[in-house]
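re: that chain from earlier
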Amino acid sequence: MPKRDKHIEAYKKKDGKTYYRYKTYLGLDPLTGKRVFAGKAGFTSYNDAKVSYDKARAAGVTGSVSQKKTFGEVYKLWLEAHKLQVKPSTIATQSDIVKNHILPYFGTDDISKIKPIKYQQWVIDLAKSYAAYRLTISIFNQIYDYGVSLGACDKLNNPNLMASIPAVRREKRMDNYYSQEELAEFLEAADKISHKSYIYFRLLALTGLRRSEALALTWSDVTPETIAVTKTLTGVGVQTPKTRRSNRLVPIDDVMYNLLLDLKQPGVDVIFANKFGAYHNIAAPRYWLQKIYQSNPQLRKITIHGFRHTFASLMTGAGLADVQLIMGHSSADMTIGTYTHQTDSSVNRIREQVKKLETDL
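^ sequence. v structure.
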């Protein structure tokens, strides 16, 4: 009589009859990393149980575990892997996009069965309501491709391949920067609302600092002649600047330095500090700007980034390379040696331009 498989056991039910069952370990689920077992009971003969057992063993994990995964489940796995590759600020931004614009539509859908017609309607609605719709679509594709690598969906079934993506709308608008006269008018109005916001926007317009770089400034970064840009404030805290060239020295004059001193608080290292002596929320400048515009409807509106553009437009007496260096543009086509050699002279030339502007502001 052939030897019976030890994984198949006989047992009795209340009716007194003998039945057969099995349970066996198959391996790890490639999507979750969890241990996978196959088992079944209720067979009336050993042979029937053995046939089922052999099929389960032959199929392995792939055949015995449902590979159905929702888009939301794949997103969670993608996010954990993505955290190892990008900065926390990027994770925070992309997570918000996914939670607000992707998961509400596809979070509970089987990722392998997202219908092209549903995806196309999502793309159309997204393009109408959200300026960063192309970035959102790109993130969707990153998550879907990660699902492909896990075996949860097929690359050829990506609904994006069958969708029509609207072109970026090029709307005509006013230039996003101020002339010298407009800047003077804005700063006069801002100072009547808040001395802190007046100093903040004046600093952006006369140094070319990014809003997050200005918010991150501490007193150790500042001398009467320069500001050392070494960090940037994000939604998750202070980080290193976005590019290597973002680490730079920015010139200031006596007027700007003395204005910054107006903000100095005993025992507080952060220059633009909140009432607790800590960093402001990264969104604070937007509220400062809104308040100024609401109280002064005669002012032409520009964005916060427009003050950085304002700096570039006002530096007409300086060379393009000088402006690129001071603003930390990654497009400055220079070697590190050239950068080091030109830094002092660039700072001095920009400082002279700022001094000329200060007399009219």
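The beta strands are 8-12, 18-28, 35-43, 226-229, 232-234, 237-239, 248-251.
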